[in-house]
Structure formats: structure tokens, C-alpha cells
Amino acid sequence: MLKMKKWLENNIFKIKEALSKTRRDVARYVPTTENININVDEEFYDSLLEKFIKADVGLELSEKIINELKKNIKVGAVHGTPLQIEKNKLQEKIKETIKSQLPEGEVPGPHLQNGIYLIVGVNGSGKTTSIGKLARRFKDGKQKVLIVAGDTFRAAAGEQLDVWAKRAEAEIFSPPEVKKPDAVVYAALKKAKNENFNVVLIDTAGRLHSQINLMDELRKINSIIEKFVKPCLGMAPNLEKLIVLDATIGQNAIVQAELFSKAIGLTGIILSKLDSSAKGGVILNIMNKLSLPVKFIGTGEQIDDIVEFDFDEYLNGLIM
Ligand SMILES: Nc1nc2c(ncn2[C@@H]2O[C@H](COP(=O)(O)OP(=O)(O)OP(=O)(O)O)[C@@H](O)[C@H]2O)c(=O)[nH]1
Ligand SMILES: [Mg+2]
């Protein structure tokens, strides 16, 4: 419990840290940390728009935010005088405006709930790493965690997962004789049920040989899980289908999420590598375009580098 509490306290710090590359582009319109007055003129709006676009907030949403901000700020303006606003007040206005322009998409946490987690995403997005990090969180919370090697196609995939399972001190299920991912998943779920595991984290392939279709394989895995989950709904196994999206790729993340969502019906997003990205504004774009909640954020390569997404903390980290 103590570790879990520490994790939540770390959240704010880690989100701020992870956004530092993005912030360089979005928030550095203010050169000091003092609460100075800012000239809010066309030049200010133009540079803010440019920064939003650079951070991959997306043109359409960026323009919407700026136009609304102009309206919000005009309301308090004295006619004819050049507009100057205290930095703190201006930041609050920007945050309020961003919020007002997004659909109410955020699902309140905590997102770290026991259950079955199917983790999908293109190769290199951060699936295996995120599974290791999540496993560790659950282990810290004293849960019984099973990690499932659902990527049976790539030889090194099992080894990489094994490294993370050891780091997290979680059990791994990776039967060498089973070659089909859906068969591995089926056997793993049976084991989890029989042996009372309360968390199952399923790793999947990000790319297959060209003759095998990734989406078909994922559909097969998905239908195994759904069939399995249905009869034991009385036991309420929570099923999460999370896509791992690499924050450094910016707007392409949206295309990927749509593709996987169409195939298996996602329940949320893990946004990895926010720490290496200058495109952290993509979260706003995701919230605007997809009705999928961002549930976790990857903030580095170490096992502790994952936080629960919190919209207010995110905005505070973005606009500071
Ligand atoms: N900086 C940073 N690096 C990350 C993060 N998450 C993952 N990575 C790095 O991204 C690379 C790919 O991560 P993997 O977890 O192997 O990705 P994967 O989706 O399992 O890849 P495949 O198994 O090839 O499909 C590794 O070098 C990780 O260290 C993160 O939050 N921040
Ligand atoms: Mg992997």
C-alpha cells in the first residue's frame, strides 16, 4: 500500500517531467517563472497556435482553442487599451479553454484495476515494456500476476518478456510447445482461473510475417478472451484491451488506434515514451478525435516509469 501511495504522489512529478520536451514548444512563450504581465496580441496568439501545432495538438483543434481563447479573453478587455494579462491568469484561461473544447472523454481513475489486460500495438511501440511496468505496479499492490507470452512469432519476443517478468517478479506463461497465440492465451486463462491469478497481462505481436495478418491473429485472440470472460462474468473479470501508442509519432497514433479499434474494440490507451516526445500535445488530439480514454503514460525506460493519466495534471504540466 505504501508503494502504491508513493506511486500516486510521484504521478504529478513524473507527468511534468515527461512533458518537458513538449513544453519547450508549447509553454515557453513566457520567459520567466515570475507572475509577469503578458501582452496578449495577435503575435501572442500566432505563436501559441504555432506551438500547439508543433506539439501535434492538430490544426483543427488548435485553431478551435485559439479562437475560443480570443473570445474568452475579450470579455474582460477594456476597449482600446493593449491587453496585458498576468501570466498565472492567462495560463488558467488557456487550460479552461482547452477543456471546454474537448468532449467529456475522461474516465475517472484509478485505472489500475485487477483483471485481464490484452496489450496491443505496432512493433516497437512499447507493449512489452509497459507490461513489465504494469506487472510491477500490481505486484507492489500484492496482486497475483500472470504475464502471457502471446507473441509466439518472433523468437526474441518471449525472451524480452521474460526479462521484464523477472524484473517485476511476476510469473510468466510461455509454453514452448504451443505455437499459436490464441492457444497460448486460452491455456493461460485456464491456468489463471484455476490458480486464482487476479491480474493477467497478455503481450502480443506488433508485426507478423507478411503472409499472416496481424489483425486476424488479434481477432482470434480477442474472441478467445471474450468467450472466456462471458461465462465467468459472475466473477466479474475486468477486461481491458489497451493499445500502446508511441507519443513520439504524434498524429499517426490516431490512425493506429482506429485500425486496432476496428479489429478488436479497444477500451483505452497507454501512451508510451512521453518523456522522449516533443509531441505530447497529441493527447489532446486523441481526446478530440477518438472516444478512447488515455489510461496510462510511459515516462521512461525504467520499471517505475509509468503513471496513471490525469487530465488536470497533464494540463498543468503542459501549460506552465
Ligand atoms: N523513453 C522511453 N522509452 C520507452 C518507453 N516505453 C518503451 N520504451 C522503449 O521503446 C523500445 C521498444 O519497447 P518494447 O516494449 O520492446 O516495444 P514492443 O511494443 O514490445 O515491441 P515489439 O515486441 O517489437 O512489437 C524499448 O527500447 C523501450 O525501452 C517509455 O515510456 N519511455
Ligand atoms: Mg514486445
Overview of the structural elements:
The chain is of the alpha/beta class and about 325 residues long. The chain folds into 2 domains: about 25-100, Up-down Bundle (Four Helix Bundle (Hemerythrin (Met), subunit A)); about 115-320, 3-Layer(aba) Sandwich (Rossmann fold), CATH 3.40.50. The chain is built from 12 helices and 10 strands. The protein has helices at about 1-20, 20-25, 40-55, 60-75, 85-100, 125-140, 155-170, 180-195, 215-230, 250-265, 280-290, 310-320; strands at about 35-40, 85, 115-120, 145-150, 170-175, 200-205, 240-245, 270, 295-300, 305-310. Strands 5-4-6-3-7-8-9-10 form an 8-stranded mixed β-sheet, sandwiched between helices. Helix 8 (about 180-195) packs parallel to helix 9 (about 215-230). The chain is elongated, with a radius of gyration of 22 Å. The mean pLDDT is about 90. The structure holds guanosine-5'-triphosphate (GTP) and magnesium ion. Magnesium ion (MG) binds near residues 127, 128, 157 and 160. The site of magnesium ion has 4 residues, from helix 6 and helix 7.
